[in-house]
């Protein structure tokens, strides 16, 4: 078999595999959009639920999801970046750091229900935060942390070593080199991984089930110690716990949640492309 024919067969096989993966995703998105777009209206996006969640809108759930996403960012970003800097720049290549990296990778695959149970025990009960935005944000921050650390470390390690060598040869300290040379060039990868991690946190149900989510709240939360509604849990409740729930409202809620997650993914792509265009290498 000639090399040209082999390349053609490889391209065809990869195209078929891509279609097998992409077509079901597009079909699911199309199905949700087709059934959910009918529910989207100004009232649906700006009013609270009524009549046992069967009427009205999902405004408290949208606001709660946004609040939890910001809380997750505050909880995960500083600690994740600090851990990535330490592992990439300060920690030596020894058995301990290899075990730490392995633990981080394994934590990224832990089911979210486990994080929810941990958050219940650590933050809701032991720390005394109760079922609150604070407990939920900290739990979601732990859920997102392994992804943030892994992607940030990879982005930092991808910066050429010459940048560090030249900076330190000119008299800069190690921290000055990291701050002014390494981090600016690693930032596209760091921000991309961080935003994608937030997208995962925004769609979690099991984690917030034990730590923050409420079935129905007539008012928006006023402090970080209040409960809040959230779109993933609200969708679970109206799809499984409310008899006679209009199917249109279920798909409308799912569509709004999908749009939030897809918006975060799109934002990550835009930020990465924009920052990479300004990269010097």
**Text of the CATH class:** Mainly Alpha
Strand order of the largest sheet: 1-2
How much of the sequence is in beta strands? under 5%
User: What's the number of domains?
Assistant: 1
Give Rg in angstroms. 22 Å
Sum up the overall morphology in one term.
globular
Euclidean distance between termini CA atoms:
40 Å
Order of helices and strands: HHEEHHHHHHHHH
The CATH topology is MetI-like fold
CATH superfamily: MetI-like
DSSP helix count?
11
- SS content category: mainly alpha
Total count of strands: 2
Largest sheet: 2 strands, antiparallel
Give the integer mean of the pLDDT values. Answer: 88
Low-pLDDT stretches are none
Strand and helix map with partners:
Blueprint: H1 3-36, H2 42-46, E1 49-50, E2 55-56, H3 59-90, H4 95-108, H5 112-126, H6 133-157, H7 161-169, H8 174-202, H9 206-209, H10 231-240, H11 247-277
Structure keywords:
single chain, about 280 residues, mainly alpha, MetI-like fold, two-stranded antiparallel sheet, globular
Mind explaining what this structure looks like?
The chain is an all-alpha fold and 281 residues long. The chain has one domain: MetI-like (MetI-like fold, Orthogonal Bundle). 74% of the residues lie in helices and 1% in strands. The chain is built from 11 helices and 2 strands, in the order H-H-E-E-H-H-H-H-H-H-H-H-H. A two-stranded antiparallel ribbon has the order 1-2. Helix 5 crosses helix 6. The radius of gyration is 22 Å and the shape is globular.
């Amino acid at each position: 078999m000639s090399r040209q024919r082999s390349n053609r067969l490889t391209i065809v096989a990869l195209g078929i595999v891509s279609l097998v993966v992409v077509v079901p995703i597009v079909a699911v998105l199309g199905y949700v959009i087709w059934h959910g777009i009918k529910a989207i209206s100004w009232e649906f996006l700006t009013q609270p639920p009524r009549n046992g969640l069967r009427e009205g809108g999902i405004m408290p759930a949208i606001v709660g999801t946004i609040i939890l996403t910001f809380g997750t960012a505050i909880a995960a970003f500083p600690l994740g970046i600090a851990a990535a800097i330490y592992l990439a720049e300060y920690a030596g290549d020894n058995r301990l750091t290899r075990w730490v990296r392995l633990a981080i990778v394994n934590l990224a695959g832990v089911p979210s229900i486990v994080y929810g149970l941990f958050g219940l025990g650590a933050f809701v009960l032991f720390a005394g935060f109760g079922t609150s935005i604070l407990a939920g944000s900290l739990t979601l921050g732990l859920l997102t942390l392994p992804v943030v650390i892994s992607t940030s470390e990879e982005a930092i390690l991808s910066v050429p070593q010459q940048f560090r060598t030249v900076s330190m040869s000119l008299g800069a300290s190690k921290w000055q080199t990291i701050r002014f040379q390494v981090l600016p060039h690693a930032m596209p990868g760091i921000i991309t991984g961080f935003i994608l991690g937030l997208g995962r946190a925004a769609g979690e149900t099991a984690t917030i089930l034990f730590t923050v989510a409420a079935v129905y709240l007539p008012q928006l939360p006023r402090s970080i110690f209040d409960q809040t509604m959230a779109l993933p849990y609200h969708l679970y409740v109206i799809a499984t716990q409310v008899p006679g729930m209009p199917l249109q409202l279920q798909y409308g809620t799912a569509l709004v949640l999908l749009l939030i997650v897809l918006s975060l993914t799109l934002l990550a792509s835009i930020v990465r492309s924009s920052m990479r265009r300004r990269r010097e290498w």
